[in-house]
Design goal:
There is one protein chain. The protein is of the alpha+beta class and 459 residues long. The protein has two domains: 281 residues, Bira Bifunctional Protein, Domain 2 (BirA Bifunctional Protein, domain 2, 2-Layer Sandwich); 96 residues, Rossmann fold. 43% of the residues lie in helices and 18% in strands. The chain has 19 helices and 16 strands. An eight-stranded mixed sheet has the order 1-5-6-11-10-9-7-8. A hairpin with an 8-residue loop joins β9 and β10. The chain is elongated.
Length: 459
């Protein structure tokens, strides 16, 4: 029997040590900024009850949820009639009671409701864990990927939206990525839906608008016509979405168009207030009011945020928004929240495309001690422990093989320094330290070596 070639599911990846180090570089930058702003960490299970997830992401989102078959004889409770009729919707509910989490926001809402009595509101949390979506894999889009969320729940203050802008600005400044922040408000979109005569079709309208960047405006218009919107309504919508000019000019134009529509005017006021708060501590990156930003998730009720790379064509690097009603579906009403989610995998792809990972992200050991034999090994081992005690990452080559092979090991593993001791060094209680980057080598006492290495680490 032919052996099956090993592999992994499409849309998933293995990570080698350098990739993990680079990913940690991203995660650590995000985590550091979250903590600077007073956010606290939580974690939730990889799987949730299917009932927790369904109906929270819209029809398209529900289709992308990875369902988990019930344990044991998972067909035992299936209705025979549904099985014979191949009723997919009803069968799915009977075969699966759990699912892999689609994002971190809905599980967070569930967490807040479940633990509300020990939470102090407003509650600022961050969460950095993998999520799963049954999407079509492509560049920058995976079926398993990391999200790095931060949310403030229990307050309606727009200061929180402005703080999220500051967080975004700090993270991408630290990562050396030029971005622009796109900003909109769901209330404005609801006002536009009312303006064109279809206030009951907001979900259809936002779902179509959300596809404009990829498919173009005409494609979105065609989709709306297919879904039953009148040509007159679509003709009124197109010039709204094509508004140009500065942020203030677009907002002024909208104030004229949506005059008399309270929901839309309220959304415009919220956008202006956020921009005013941000102006107190100006951002390094561009902040753009974008009417074509919809983010087709049903739970957003106010601000909508998305971040794009300036230099690399890529989907959203992070996104988020305000949600007023998410916890109410789990039994806790009147608890508003706003949050952001960084896509670590897409950020990784941007940094890789621009070759902007720090050189040290591939360095795990900073010193390799050369193994010339038992006597030399035993002389070096205490020195390595001494270096480790002051935070220097180091290792001993395990076998006394040829020097060339050991140096090649250091070179292939990006180890910047090699520590050596032969008969001459041991007689003088010295070590030879070789800088693999420059080729320079000198004999030093252990204390001098410590000073050299600490200067390297502190750079």
């Amino acid at each position: 029997m032919a052996k099956t070639k090993p592999g992994i599911p499409k849309g998933t990846r293995d990570f080698d040590p350098i990739e993990i180090a680079r990913r940690d570089h991203i995660l650590n930058a995000i985590r550091e900024v979250y903590r600077l702003h007073g956010f606290r960490p939580i974690e939730t299970p990889a799987m949730e009850n299917l009932s927790t997830l369904l109906g929270k992401y819209g029809e398209e989102g529900d289709r992308l949820i990875f369902r988990i078959l019930n344990s044991g004889d998972f067909t035992s409770r299936v209705d025979d009639q549904d099985w014979q009729n191949k009723n997919t919707g009803r069968l799915s509910a009977q075969l699966s009671e759990k699912a892999l989490r689609y994002d971190l926001t809905v599980p967070f809402a569930r967490y807040v409701v479940q633990h509300q009595h020990k939470i102090s509101f407003p509650f600022k949390r961050y969460q950095m864990q993998p999520v799963w979506r049954a999407d079509r894999p492509q560049k920058g889009r995976y079926r398993e990927f990391f999200q790095c969320d931060a949310d403030v729940i229990g307050t309606k203050s727009l200061v929180c939206e402005a703080e999220i802008m500051q967080i975004i600005d700090k993270v991408f400044s630290q990562l050396n990525i030029d971005v622009r922040i796109l900003f909109n408000n769901r209330k404005i979109l609801a006002g536009i839906a009312e303006y064109i005569g279809h206030p009951d079709r907001l979900t259809d309208i936002t779902t179509a608008i959300d596809k404009i960047e990829k498919a173009g405006l005409e494609s979105a218009v065609g989709e709306l016509l297919q879904k039953g919107l009148s040509k007159d309504a679509v003709d009124k919508l197109k010039p709204v979405l094509e508004l140009e000019g500065s942020n203030d000019e677009k907002l002024q134009a909208l104030e004229t168009l949506l005059a008399g529509i309270p929901t839309g005017i309220k959304g415009i006021g919220e956008v202006r207030e956020v921009f005013d708060i941000v102006a107190v501590s100006p951002l390094h990156c561009d902040l753009e009011f974008d009417l074509c930003l919809a983010r087709g998730l049903d739970y957003y009720t106010g601000a909508i945020i998305e971040v794009k790379s300036v230099d690399v064509p890529m989907g959203s690097l992070c996104g988020g928004g305000r949600y007023d009603d998410l916890t109410s579906i789990f039994g806790l009403s009147d608890v508003s929240g706003v949050g952001i989610s960084f896509g670590a995998d897409r950020i990784y792809d941007v940094l890789e495309a621009m070759n902007r990972f720090p050189d040290t992200t591939g360095t795990f050991s900073q010193v390799l001690a050369i193994n010339f034999g038992q006597k030399e090994r035993d002389y070096c081992l205490p020195a390595l422990e001494n270096l480790r005690s002051i935070g220097v990452q180091c290792e001993m080559y395990p076998e006394p093989v040829k020097l060339k092979k050991q140096l090649q090991y250091a070179d292939k593993n990006y180890i910047p320094f090699v520590l050596m001791a032969g008969e001459e060094e041991m007689k003088k209680s010295l070590f030879s330290l070789k800088d693999m980057r420059t080729g320079d080598q000198e004999q030093l006492m252990l204390e001098q070596i410590s000073d050299v290495l600490m200067k390297y680490i502190d750079r």
